[in-house]
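[Q] Does anyone have a clean structure-token version of this?
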Amino acid sequence: MSYEVFKCPNCQQFISNKYVVCRFCSLPLNDEIKAQAVEKEADDTRQYRVKMNKKVLYVGLGIFALGVVLSLISIFSIFFVGQGFYFPWSPIIVLFGLGQMLIGLFGILDERKK
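[A] Here you go.
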């Protein structure tokens, strides 16, 4: 039997599925209540991971956009203004943003497979 942790349906304290009664509120726990609570906890955890992966995706999109804007400003100032300036970190910012977007996207797709 594998031990899993879930929130008690009555008092919302984390307990193990090895207990027969909740150690905090003394609620009797049968196998059906335990299975439902463990399943709900697993679903809540999955939803949290999807939410975090979406945040990583959106932050990566913002960083990517910043890098593109800095690159375009550099190109515009060098070729059209004449005495332009160059942001040497802009390609690295673009690549970092692209990497964060891919990490977030693959994280979301991985959670949807489960």
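[Q] Thanks! Anything notable?
[A] Residues 5-113 form one domain.
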